[in-house]
Protein backbone atom coordinates (compact mmCIF):
# COMPACT_ATOMS: atom_id res chain seq x y z
CA UNK A 1 0.00 0.00 0.00
CA UNK A 2 1.26 3.48 -0.89
CA UNK A 3 0.22 6.65 0.93
CA UNK A 4 0.80 10.11 -0.52
CA UNK A 5 2.21 12.58 1.97
CA UNK A 6 2.49 15.82 -0.02
CA UNK A 7 3.07 18.09 2.98
CA UNK A 8 3.44 18.25 6.76
CA UNK A 9 -0.34 18.33 7.21
CA UNK A 10 -0.65 14.98 5.44
CA UNK A 11 2.17 13.65 7.62
CA UNK A 12 0.27 14.74 10.74
CA UNK A 13 -2.96 13.13 9.58
CA UNK A 14 -1.22 9.85 8.69
CA UNK A 15 0.48 9.79 12.10
CA UNK A 16 -2.85 10.38 13.82
CA UNK A 17 -4.43 7.46 11.93
CA UNK A 18 -1.59 5.15 12.97
CA UNK A 19 -1.84 6.36 16.59
CA UNK A 20 -5.55 5.56 16.71
CA UNK A 21 -4.87 1.95 15.67
CA UNK A 22 -1.74 1.28 17.71
CA UNK A 23 -1.69 -1.52 20.31
CA UNK A 24 0.89 -2.66 22.87
CA UNK A 25 3.37 -5.03 21.22
CA UNK A 26 3.14 -3.33 17.84
CA UNK A 27 6.16 -1.97 16.02
CA UNK A 28 6.03 0.92 13.58
CA UNK A 29 9.27 0.47 11.64
CA UNK A 30 10.21 3.72 9.88
CA UNK A 31 12.76 3.32 7.11
CA UNK A 32 14.11 5.80 4.59
CA UNK A 33 17.27 7.79 4.05
CA UNK A 34 18.49 10.91 5.83
CA UNK A 35 15.74 13.52 5.87
CA UNK A 36 13.10 11.12 4.56
CA UNK A 37 10.66 12.17 7.30
CA UNK A 38 10.99 9.36 9.86
CA UNK A 39 11.17 11.63 12.91
CA UNK A 40 8.39 13.85 11.53
CA UNK A 41 6.05 10.86 11.26
CA UNK A 42 7.15 9.51 14.66
CA UNK A 43 6.29 12.89 16.22
CA UNK A 44 2.88 12.87 14.53
CA UNK A 45 2.15 9.41 15.95
CA UNK A 46 3.27 10.43 19.45
CA UNK A 47 1.11 13.56 19.26
CA UNK A 48 -1.78 11.39 18.08
CA UNK A 49 -1.35 9.25 21.19
CA UNK A 50 -2.01 12.34 23.26
CA UNK A 51 1.46 13.70 24.01
CA UNK A 52 1.53 17.49 24.26
CA UNK A 53 4.72 19.45 23.71
CA UNK A 54 8.18 18.68 22.40
CA UNK A 55 9.23 15.24 21.19
CA UNK A 56 13.02 15.06 21.30
CA UNK A 57 14.62 13.16 18.43
CA UNK A 58 16.19 10.06 20.01
CA UNK A 59 19.17 10.27 17.66
CA UNK A 60 21.55 10.64 20.62
CA UNK A 61 19.62 9.04 23.48
CA UNK A 62 18.63 6.13 21.15
CA UNK A 63 15.51 5.47 23.27
CA UNK A 64 12.81 7.79 24.61
CA UNK A 65 9.92 6.42 26.67
CA UNK A 66 6.38 7.83 26.92
CA UNK A 67 3.98 6.61 29.58
CA UNK A 68 0.26 7.06 30.28
CA UNK A 69 -1.61 9.20 31.18
CA UNK A 70 0.29 11.60 28.91
CA UNK A 71 -0.14 9.08 26.07
CA UNK A 72 -2.88 6.50 25.42
CA UNK A 73 -0.52 3.53 25.79
CA UNK A 74 3.11 2.97 26.83
CA UNK A 75 5.38 3.89 23.94
CA UNK A 76 9.05 3.49 23.14
CA UNK A 77 10.51 5.79 20.47
CA UNK A 78 13.90 4.56 19.27
CA UNK A 79 16.41 5.70 16.66
CA UNK A 80 18.85 2.86 16.01
CA UNK A 81 21.06 4.79 13.59
CA UNK A 82 24.00 4.86 16.01
CA UNK A 83 24.00 1.14 16.80
CA UNK A 84 27.07 -0.60 15.44
CA UNK A 85 25.42 -4.01 15.47
CA UNK A 86 21.94 -5.39 16.22
CA UNK A 87 23.41 -7.01 19.34
CA UNK A 88 23.62 -3.54 20.89
CA UNK A 89 19.81 -3.31 20.83
CA UNK A 90 19.76 -6.21 23.29
CA UNK A 91 22.53 -4.65 25.35
CA UNK A 92 20.61 -1.42 25.90
CA UNK A 93 17.66 -3.50 27.12
CA UNK A 94 15.28 -3.01 24.23
CA UNK A 95 13.22 -6.07 25.15
CA UNK A 96 12.65 -4.73 28.68
CA UNK A 97 11.63 -1.32 27.35
CA UNK A 98 9.19 -3.01 24.96
CA UNK A 99 7.36 -4.95 27.69
CA UNK A 100 3.68 -3.90 27.40
CA UNK A 101 4.58 -1.03 25.07
CA UNK A 102 4.36 -0.17 21.40
CA UNK A 103 7.60 0.65 19.60
CA UNK A 104 8.31 3.29 16.98
CA UNK A 105 11.65 2.33 15.42
CA UNK A 106 13.67 4.65 13.19
CA UNK A 107 16.45 2.89 11.25
CA UNK A 108 14.98 -0.52 12.23
CA UNK A 109 17.48 -2.35 10.00
CA UNK A 110 20.28 -1.21 12.35
CA UNK A 111 18.57 -3.20 15.14
CA UNK A 112 18.19 -6.31 12.98
CA UNK A 113 14.72 -5.41 11.67
CA UNK A 114 11.25 -6.20 13.01
CA UNK A 115 9.39 -7.27 9.86
CA UNK A 116 9.26 -10.89 11.05
CA UNK A 117 6.93 -9.80 13.88
CA UNK A 118 3.20 -9.97 13.02
CA UNK A 119 2.70 -6.68 14.87
CA UNK A 120 5.17 -4.83 12.65
CA UNK A 121 3.90 -2.10 10.35
CA UNK A 122 6.80 -1.42 7.99
CA UNK A 123 6.83 2.06 6.48
CA UNK A 124 9.40 3.15 3.90
CA UNK A 125 9.42 6.93 3.41
CA UNK A 126 10.65 8.38 0.15
CA UNK A 127 11.18 11.92 -1.01
CA UNK A 128 9.19 12.21 -4.22
CA UNK A 129 11.32 15.19 -5.20
CA UNK A 130 14.38 12.97 -5.26
CA UNK A 131 12.50 10.42 -7.32
CA UNK A 132 11.80 13.15 -9.81
CA UNK A 133 15.48 14.02 -10.00
CA UNK A 134 16.50 10.49 -10.86
CA UNK A 135 14.68 10.88 -14.17
CA UNK A 136 12.73 7.73 -13.42
CA UNK A 137 9.47 9.57 -13.99
CA UNK A 138 10.62 11.47 -17.10
CA UNK A 139 8.72 9.37 -19.57
CA UNK A 140 5.46 9.17 -17.70
CA UNK A 141 3.60 11.52 -20.00
CA UNK A 142 0.31 10.99 -18.24
CA UNK A 143 1.62 12.07 -14.85
CA UNK A 144 3.42 15.01 -16.39
CA UNK A 145 0.26 16.54 -17.75
CA UNK A 146 -1.46 16.46 -14.39
CA UNK A 147 1.09 18.91 -13.02
CA UNK A 148 1.64 16.52 -10.12
CA UNK A 149 5.34 16.23 -10.84
CA UNK A 150 5.92 19.97 -10.67
CA UNK A 151 4.65 19.96 -7.10
CA UNK A 152 6.64 16.92 -6.09
CA UNK A 153 9.67 18.82 -4.86
CA UNK A 154 9.03 18.59 -1.14
CA UNK A 155 6.50 15.83 -0.54
CA UNK A 156 6.93 12.23 0.53
CA UNK A 157 5.35 8.90 -0.20
CA UNK A 158 5.04 6.06 2.27
CA UNK A 159 5.27 2.47 1.11
CA UNK A 160 3.45 0.48 3.79
CA UNK A 161 3.85 -3.24 4.40
CA UNK A 162 1.67 -4.60 7.20
CA UNK A 163 2.45 -7.62 9.32
CA UNK A 164 -0.35 -10.15 9.82
CA UNK A 165 -1.70 -8.33 12.90
CA UNK A 166 -2.25 -5.21 10.77
CA UNK A 167 -4.34 -6.87 8.08
CA UNK A 168 -7.80 -5.29 8.29
CA UNK A 169 -6.35 -2.54 10.51
CA UNK A 170 -4.56 -0.39 7.96
CA UNK A 171 -3.97 3.31 8.62
N1 LIG B 1 5.62 15.05 3.86
C1 LIG B 1 6.52 16.05 3.96
N2 LIG B 1 6.45 17.10 3.13
C2 LIG B 1 7.37 18.09 3.21
N3 LIG B 1 8.40 18.14 4.08
C3 LIG B 1 8.52 17.13 4.93
C4 LIG B 1 7.59 16.03 4.92
N4 LIG B 1 7.97 15.15 5.88
C5 LIG B 1 9.07 15.68 6.45
N5 LIG B 1 9.41 16.85 5.90
C6 LIG B 1 10.57 17.69 6.28
O1 LIG B 1 11.76 16.96 5.96
C7 LIG B 1 12.79 17.29 6.89
C8 LIG B 1 13.44 16.03 7.43
O2 LIG B 1 12.48 15.29 8.17
P1 LIG B 1 12.89 14.34 9.38
O3 LIG B 1 13.83 15.02 10.31
O4 LIG B 1 11.61 13.81 9.93
O5 LIG B 1 13.69 13.20 8.61
P2 LIG B 1 14.38 11.88 9.18
O6 LIG B 1 13.98 10.78 8.27
O7 LIG B 1 14.07 11.70 10.63
O8 LIG B 1 15.92 12.19 8.97
P3 LIG B 1 17.21 11.66 9.77
O9 LIG B 1 17.42 10.23 9.37
O10 LIG B 1 18.31 12.53 9.23
O11 LIG B 1 16.95 11.86 11.24
C9 LIG B 1 12.13 18.14 7.97
O12 LIG B 1 12.49 19.49 7.75
C10 LIG B 1 10.65 17.95 7.75
O13 LIG B 1 9.90 19.08 8.13
MG1 LIG C 1 15.30 11.46 12.37
Could you tell me how far the N terminus lies from the C terminus, measured between alpha carbons in angstroms? 10 Å
The major β-sheet equals:
7 strands, mixed
Give me the Rg, rounded: 17 Å
Bound molecule types: adenosine-5'-triphosphate, magnesium ion
Overall form: globular
CATH class: Alpha Beta
Question: How much helix, percentage-wise, in residues?
Answer: 25-40%
The structure class reads alpha/beta
Give the total of beta strands.
Answer: 7
Number of domains: 1
The second-level CATH architecture is 3-Layer(aba) Sandwich
Order of helices and strands: EHEHEEHHEEHHE
Number of distinct helices: 6
Mean pLDDT across the residues is 89
- CATH homologous superfamily caption: P-loop containing nucleotide triphosphate hydrolases
Amino acid sequence: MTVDLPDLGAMGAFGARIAALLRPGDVVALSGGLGAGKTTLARAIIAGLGHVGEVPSPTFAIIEVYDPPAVRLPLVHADFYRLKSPREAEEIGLDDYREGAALIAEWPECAGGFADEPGCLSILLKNTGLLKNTGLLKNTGLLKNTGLLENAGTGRIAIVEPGDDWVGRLP
